[in-house]
Structure formats: structure tokens, C-alpha cells
Write a structure and sequence with these properties.
This protein is mainly β. The strands form six sheets. It has a six-stranded antiparallel β-sheet with strand order 17-14-19-20-21-24, with no helix packed on it. A hairpin with a 7-residue loop joins β19 and β20. It starts with a strand and ends with a strand.
């Protein structure tokens, strides 16, 4: 079976791309505002590379229907950059890889750099007559350029060589190679400005793919009223939700708060509620105050970009499905909304103190150690690309520029 790779040029000029692995390895020239369709058989791999004055730049690396039947996609700047590009599965913005404003962030960082930094990068950072950056050379050839690019794009695109030839690589780079969600069409967008796809992304293409059965409820969402969280209760009963602000936060670490929830909010069945939070909040929200529980982890205002960021975690258990999504119109979303408790093996179950059935912790806590049956069941039914199961990497971060995320509990 084959799927389609849509290469969309959102810029105002014709853009040339190298095509590796498909299209008989022939370059394509995509007109301004046009889309080029490339046939990509399942199991095939290749790359779409933007060219700038004949120099290779940003590239979308794609494997169709790879390990466990999933697509693998990433955006890389290892061989250079001269424009903005992202790659994602069609109509699945939470699978998106790449920085849609890479060149703007690059240019801002360049103008703020010290004279010593600029001198060290003079050979590999190319500018126009006004001193603005137009292109950079291959990052892999200039260690100082890699360090510079990481100051503004770390975790957004592949920057270094990654795990290769015995080297562990950079964790944030390795995360870029995480699996997408199933096997479907791929969208690559290019622009000199913002490369975020516009809606609708592409015309629908029908393929044989069946998503898991999901819970469907019609809820009128509360409105964004500032920094905070929109809670949406998709269950048929009134539910309390507890917010826990971390005791402390470090570089990739945190002191989880287990005993001082603030606030605790009640949301009626099939209803929603906006919860105002300080911009300093870094922690989680869960159903009630007991464990095991599904966590929606988030911070309201990240130090690097001022946006809200979040994810779903099953490491301290799972008492039901949850999703987290942006409210700034970007369409970013992650998590899952189908029931994984119903048919779970009894070995994976741990009841809460109130008798509620839940999946046990996957990492352990003061009540018990890691539950291997729960780990295996969640990896099978959810996967690390949708929620943290055993820590590490592979869970795409959801960001919302307006400092407000929506958390849906099912």
C-alpha cells in the first residue's frame, strides 16, 4: 500500500527541493502557494530537502510504516538552513516536528550574539547587505554552530548527529526520531515566514486505517480568560480535579507535590471550567487526590519562550483517558481518549483507597514498585508517543503561546 507526501510551498516564490527515496530521486520545483504530491509506498524511507542557492538546507526525514506499523518523521537542520519547514502526519498536528519560525529565531539570536560569537561563526553564517541571516552551512561541520543553534532551537529540530556509530547523541535530538501515530499521509510545509500549516491542511485522501474507538461527548468549552487551564469533564458524573504545584523545579527534574493540592475544582458532568493559575505554576492536574491517577503535567509560562507547555503521564497510574491541547489556535494536542481500563489484565490493576479501579504505577512510589503488567498494557494500548509511560523521551510536548492549555478527562 502507498500513501501520499504533500510538499506544500507557502512562500511567494518557487522553491526547489531535493527528493531522496521517491520520485526517482529527481528534484521538484514547487510553485508559490502550490502543493506537490509524492507517492510513498509503505516501508519506504527518504527525505525532502529544501535548496537555497544550490545549498542543502532544512530537511524532512520520513519512514513510512516503520517499526510497529508507525510512520517515523523528523525535521533536521544538520546539513544547513535557509528557510522554515515542518513535517507532520496529515490532520494530526500533535505529530508535528520542526520550528515553523526557525529562520526568524536564528536571526534574532544572531543579532543578540556577542561580537566574539559572531566572529567564531563568520564562515558558516551567511548574511545579506543589512546584516540579516539568509542561510547557515551544515551544522555537523561546525561545533560552534551547533552550540549556537541549540540556544534557540534545542528540542524543536534535529541539530546534531544524534545517536550514531556508538555515540549516544543528544537526548533532544534523539527525541525528534520518535514514532508518529500509525501509518497515514504526510504533510511537509515550507515558508520564508511562518511554516505552520493552514486549515484545511490538505484535501482528504481515503486509506484503510481504523483509529481506536473513542469516547464522543458534546461539550461547550469554557472561554480562555488568561493564564490557566480549561478543564473539560467528558464523564456522566460530577468530578473533582486537584491541581498540584511542584515543590521545586530543576533542569529536567522536579519535586512532585503529593499532599498539598491547590486548588481543587469541581466540574459538572459533560461540562467545562476555566481555572486561573499564576504564571509561575509548574505541576499537574488529576482526578481527585488519590493515586493511582492519570496526570496532565504542565507549566503556564516556560522560561525559554513564555508559552504554556504540557503532556500526559501514566507513570503514577491511569484512572482514565486524558488529552492536553493548545488553545492558541495552533491545533497542538496529545494524549488519548479511549478506555484502556475495561479489558486490562488484573495483574496491571491497583485500586485506589476509595475502591476505584485503576492501572498501577509504572515507575513505583511509596506504595509499590513498578508494575510490569501495567507497563506492557499501556505500551500496547497507548504508546510512548501519546503519554509518558516509563519516563525518558518520545512524548511530543504541547505548547500554547497564550499561556492556556485545555485538559480533557474521559
Amino acid at each position: 500500500m502507498s500513501h501520499t507526501i504533500f510538499v506544500r510551498n507557502m512562500s511567494k516564490h518557487t522553491q526547489e527541493f531535493e527528493v531522496h527515496g521517491w520520485n526517482n530521486n529527481q528534484n521538484i520545483h514547487v510553485g508559490a502557494g502550490k502543493t506537490w504530491n509524492i507517492n510513498a509506498p509503505d516501508g519506504s524511507s527518504g527525505a525532502i530537502i529544501a535548496l537555497h542557492d544550490g545549498h542543502e538546507g532544512e530537511q524532512a526525514e520520513i519512514t513510512k510504516k516503520g517499526f510497529m506499523g508507525n510512520d517515523f518523521i523528523d525535521m533536521s537542520n544538520i546539513v544547513g538552513a535557509g528557510g522554515n519547514m515542518i513535517v507532520q502526519q496529515v490532520n494530526k498536528p500533535w505529530t508535528r516536528k520542526g520550528d515553523p519560525l526557525f529562520m526568524q529565531h536564528l536571526n534574532n539570536a544572531w543579532h543578540k550574539a556577542s561580537d566574539a560569537t559572531k566572529r567564531s561563526l563568520d564562515r558558516c553564517v551567511h548574511r545579506d547587505g543589512h546584516g540579516n541571516v539568509t542561510r547557515i552551512d551544515a551544522i555537523k561541520d561546525y561545533p560552534q554552530l551547533e552550540a549556537f543553534v541549540r540556544t534557540f532551537a534545542d528540542g524543536k529540530t534535529y541539530i546534531g548527529v544524534g545517536a550514531w556509530n556508538g555515540s549516544p547523541g543528544n537526548d533532544n535530538d534523539n527525541h525528534q526520531s520518535s514514532a508518529a501515530e500509525g501509518n497515514t499521509d504526510i504533510l511537509v510545509t515550507y515558508n520564508d515566514g511562518d511554516a505552520t500549516p493552514q486549515s484545511p491542511e490538505v484535501a482528504p485522501v481515503m486509506h484503510n486505517f481504523q483509529a481506536p474507538q473513542i469516547v464522543q461527548r458534546n461539550i461547550t468549552s469554557a472561554k480562555v480568560q488568561g493564564p490557566g487551564i480549561i478543564l473539560r469533564n467528558h464523564t456522566s458524573h460530577k468530578q473533582q480535579y486537584a491541581f498540584y504545584n511542584n515543590y521545586w523545579n530543576g533542569n529536567g527534574t522536579a519535586g512532585a507535590n503529593f499532599d498539598h493540592p491547590d486548588p481543587i475544582v469541581t466540574v459538572n458532568a459533560n461540562d467545562s471550567h476555566f481555572v486561573s493559575l499564576p504564571e509561575s505554576f509548574k505541576g499537574r492536574v488529576q482526578r481527585g487526590t488519590q493515586l493511582p491517577a492519570t496526570w496532565a503535567e504542565f507549566q503556564i509560562s516556560a522560561s525559554n519562550d513564555g508559552a504554556a507547555h504540557g503532556d500526559i503521564s501514566l507513570q503514577q497510574g491511569c484512572d482514565g483517558a486524558a488529552t492536553i491541547s493548545a488553545t492558541d489556535g495552533s491545533g497542538q494536542k496529545n494524549g488519548f481518549n479511549w478506555d484502556i481500563l475495561k479489558d486490562a489484565p488484573e495483574a496491571a490493576i491497583q485500586k485506589k483507597p476509595d475502591g476505584t479501579r485503576a492501572l498501577a504505577t509504572t515507575v513505583g512510589n511509596w506504595m509499590s514498585g513498578p508494575n510490569q503488567a501495567a507497563i506492557e498494557w499501556e505500551q500496547k494500548k497507548v504508546g510512548q508517543q501519546r503519554a509518558y509511560i516509563v519516563g525518558g523521551t518520545g512524548v511530543p510536548d504541547v505548547a500554547s503561546k497564550n499561556k492556556c492549555l485545555a485538559v480533557d478527562f474521559f
